[in-house]
Amino acid sequence: MNLETLNETAKALVAEGKGILAADESTGTIKKRFDSIGVESTEDTRRDYRELLFRADGAEDFVSGVILYDETLRQDAADGTPLRELLSSKGIIPGIKVDMGAKPLALAEGETITEGLDGLRERLTEYAELGARFAKWRATYSIGAELPSEYCVWTNAHALARYAALCQEADIVPIVEPEVLQDGEHSLEESAKATGRVLEAVYTELHDQRVELRGTLLKPNMVLSGYSASGRAGVDEVAAATLEVFYRHVPAAVPGIVFLSGGQTDEDATAHLNAMNALGPHPWQLSFSYGRALQAPALKAWQGKPENVAAAQAAYLHRAKLNGAARTGSYTAEMESAVAA
Ligand code: 13P
After folding, report:
1. pLDDT above 80: residue 341
2. Which end of the chain, N or C, is less packed with Cβ atoms under 10 Å?
3. 287 CA to middle of ligand 1, Å?
């Protein structure tokens, strides 16, 4: 393991004003996204869509890295340039999703365990050869009367740490992603409690499995009232509750916390990040690793039509720019209505 390389990569991914684009939807998930705009998901349409995002001029000012799915890391643009090289030629770091998905956890109704450790060392070696410099592994937890269970919290923490240690051996920065799902009617306090328990277990396992925190990034949920809760917490409350949990549970050695959007609206995801950064400086960089919150307007503008590529790129760039502003607490709601550049 080369800790200096890992630390440099981690810091580059959370460089000032920049964050990560999560474009690592599995084949099943991208199909759902395409279904929403009536586009068939084929190898070519997936390539066309991701190529338009990666070619968007100026996105590199706000996007430090892109998380890819296995297919995309190996795929070529329409003109034959490998997509990963398209990214690196703009100074954007290619990353790779390496988990095999969240599967039902045995004897634990309603809970999941993320799979994908078997053969991971070999896959990481190949991914490194293909140019991936960071990776992602996502664990999910639900909030309920008795959930998440200690069983689910600790088995997923153990797997996240095993993944992280293997990544570091391969000089790949592990993005550790424990996502406490924010569906349901839970309160802000319940979200804070579940998120705190999950983080405590994750950092215990990372420590016990000798993972060097300086060569990692954390990709968590924000602390929110459940999406179906009444009287949901506003932006300032969310920012304060989220910061309180992370101050308590995330060591300062971690270079950055890159939030997922997790089904928030684009505007909420940006406003929440902005509010947290406006309360800074913090021990870690607070950034984004958004999937839906960066891509939704672009997907809608694209509709699978070549004549819409420029409009889709403008929509993506606009969102990237606003999230870039949220990195320094300089985003305002008025910027939303500015004509997509
Ligand atoms: P969302 O921002 O759409 O939640 O996606 C981020 C991600 O990578 C989830 O694993």
Report:
1. no
2. C
3. 13
Task: pLDDT band for 338, please (50, 70, 90 cuts).
Answer: confident
Cβ atoms within 10 Å, residue 144: 15
Answer for the pair 229, 186: CB distance below 8 angstroms, yes or no: yes
* Mean pLDDT value across the chain: 98
pTM of structure: 0.98
Q: Is 321 a catalytic residue?
A: no
**223, two tokens:** 């602390």
pLDDT category, 339, cuts 50, 70, 90? Answer: low
The residue annotated as part of the active site, out of 51, 177, 179, 205, is 177
The answer to whether the CB of 258 falls within 8 A of the CB of 175 is: yes
Sign of the CA dihedral 25, 26, 27, 32?
negative
Residue 207 is encoded by which pair of tokens? 């420590």
The rounded Å distance from CA 25 to ligand 1 centre is 8
> How many C-beta atoms surround the C-beta of residue 250 within 10 A?
20
Q: Which of 18, 97, 136, 219 is catalytic?
A: 219
